[in-house]
Amino acid sequence: MLTAADLHPSLSDPGLSVMSFLNEATARYPDAVSFASGRPHEQFFELGSLEVFLARFLDHLRTERGLSEGAVTRELLQYGATSGIIRELIATMLRTDEQISVDPRSVVVTTGCQEALLITLRTLFGGPDDALLVASPCYAGVTGAALLLGIRVEHVPEGPWGLAPEQVLAAVKQLIGEGRRPRALYVVPEGANPGGTSLGLDARKELIALAQEYDFLLIEDHAYAVFAPAGSPPSLKALDDAAQVIHIGTFSKSGFPGLRLGYVVADQALSDGTGPTRLLADALSDVKSMVTVNTSPIAQAIAGGMLLSCGFSLRKANAEAALFYRENLATAHRELTRAFSAPDKTVSWNRPESGFFMVVSVPFEADDEALERSAHDYQVLWTPMRYFQRAGGERKLRLSLSYLTPAEIRTGISRLANFIEDERARQTT
Amino acid sequence: MLTAADLHPSLSDPGLSVMSFLNEATARYPDAVSFASGRPHEQFFELGSLEVFLARFLDHLRTERGLSEGAVTRELLQYGATSGIIRELIATMLRTDEQISVDPRSVVVTTGCQEALLITLRTLFGGPDDALLVASPCYAGVTGAALLLGIRVEHVPEGPWGLAPEQVLAAVKQLIGEGRRPRALYVVPEGANPGGTSLGLDARKELIALAQEYDFLLIEDHAYAVFAPAGSPPSLKALDDAAQVIHIGTFSKSGFPGLRLGYVVADQALSDGTGPTRLLADALSDVKSMVTVNTSPIAQAIAGGMLLSCGFSLRKANAEAALFYRENLATAHRELTRAFSAPDKTVSWNRPESGFFMVVSVPFEADDEALERSAHDYQVLWTPMRYFQRAGGERKLRLSLSYLTPAEIRTGISRLANFIEDERARQTT
Hints:
The structure is a homodimer.
Chain A: E1 2-3, H1 14-28, E2 33-34, H2 49-64, H3 69-77, H4 87-98, E3 107-110, H5 112-124, E4 130-136, H6 140-149, E5 152-159, E6 162-163, H7 165-177, E7 181-187, H8 201-214, E8 217-221, H9 236-239, E9 245-250, H10 251-254, E10 262-265, E11 269-271, E12 276-279, H11 280-289, H12 297-309, H13 314-317, H14 319-339, E13 348-349, E14 357-361, H15 368-378, E15 380-381, E16 383-384, E17 396-400, H16 406-428
Parallel strand pairs in A: 2-15, 4-5, 4-7, 7-8, 8-9
Antiparallel strand pairs in A: 3-10, 5-6, 9-10, 11-12, 13-14, 14-17, 16-17
Helix pairs in contact in A: 1-6, 2-12, 5-6, 5-11, 7-8, 14-16, 15-16
């Protein structure tokens, strides 16, 4: 019989099964209020939009690009370019929404943000001394992909406002001192999962300057950008004039997850030693050809139709959703404030204005057992922050506010407050 | 500037860019007859089928599974189970078409056959002494995925009828003698790409017996199964009563490539040392969660509708296509026979009855330069077999017969014959 210990070592790492564990916990308590699920809310989904967007893209192929019926069928149903068929449309959206100006040839369309992360890591990391820097806490999809590829990860503790440039600098210097190479830093500048933090303009600029000085790349994950409040700083890529930033995005939040569609922008020139020969995007595409060959042109067509239908502004198309998510964050803050109005300071939380997540600090171990009690006895689910960081998350929990209505949030926070009070009482008896 | 040498070593291996090279050559000679493209023929594609199959699956969800409209929308547009939402339908198809009886829980739906290969290799290969055995010549997608993952590959020379069990045994014994572990053998028993070979019943049974005796797994790629002539032997998985076989399939040939949909069947029990705890499929699913999270439910819905519409028999649905491809193979054989009717035996070819491919041996180096002359001067494209094997392919070329009409094949073989005659003349002058 096959034994688990005999498989790839990543299979024995809890980091690989976080996702399944969370799904399983949610499935066991279907009636609980779940602050665990980071899904976008389905009130913004319309099944009929599949047909509408697909028709819009087919019209684009026939009318604007002048394709014959045979060529249209081929574009949708046949094998296609590994880099994708909607690169121009994505480049136009990036210019419209994010003030990012890039040649469409530097865009690779991927099977979700996850494939974008995987192929980026595989392409960049070659040697055993290469280190991937990540914030601690960090999105499990990045550390999971690194596990599959045997890439060494260095965790940089987040400050209250997210990744602090001085902490990154310290980590970079330590790595160099150890004879290792800081190859890339993964960073979510807007509404980070799981910490909920967003970086200010100065921090963004300093990270780019650091990357340039110490010759590492920034892998920017901009999944939650469309939900940022007006006046938020530009993306790292928009601020990047030295090609230090690889920019990753997804349609899972700005469109819907069922598309499984993302993209990576890699406009860095690659040299063969004598001079520039091609773009980093071309290397990513070579790697992608051995992961999924190419991204489903059907999914690309639907996303393409979506971009054409909204005048290339996913921010505008998501204005209502952005308001909903921001109000959910505000509701959670208000309800927590109401529940913990006593002068007791042992329960605290951050106050993100962007993204789907916030973090609550509690005066007890927020572990699997605590989660089980919370789910079983109080019918409220959350995610232990320890899943996302090696140290410092023991007494913290993540609340996802995206998949709940305001009424559900009120009920959930009330249950959570009861749970927290009772846990505190357990500690002191 | 980033240098190519500074990226992951796989990026410097020609094995990773075979696909792009072939596409690029085809694009440069749009008017050539191309025996290079292994695409399925578009005469069997209907753009309108997208809508029909999708509607059929939605009806299935509403009527047969009794889902509410909200649940239907969630199933199609939201994140979903990593293992897929059409596992039962695929299991029914496997029982109907392939006499493979498996629990649907042992099926993982993947983003094409390529992701199935990648996650299977990542899951199985843990140690530096683990070896992946492949036929030589071998499909570039397997060796490419192994390159990305740093897996050592051992090439077993094919005989005229494909992978010979005695050659596999010799390779296995040699590996064991070197203190290494033969972990798995990748095998395409029906219409192999690129060799065109199909294994007889005895060879299939012997491979399973060998795998059992020497404790390695068989990774069966059954991409071309639906085109096999009546009376072909059963798949390895259908013959497997000791769970030695991991079975991989794709909808790219039986449906259409734009779906980017495949599946892997892994019903092996996994033990944690004390007893069976879960299936190998569950481990594959954990790995998949870090590659593409889950497979697009939209693509799954279309494939599901296809399965429901054809009574779960892709073989029946593809009967006309199978005839077309087999007749194309026969046409190529007939035209080659006509062109090389002289007693000269320096040009020969095999005669596959299944799949998309055949191999022609020529009396000169079939390399990139020869291909360039063939394309430029004779307007006929093919693939050097050296792309698919380390040794033995220097004077061989692969013909793909799938993407051409009989008339195009006649024209193409006539051009190819002229090219071969002139190359031979070049050699002797």
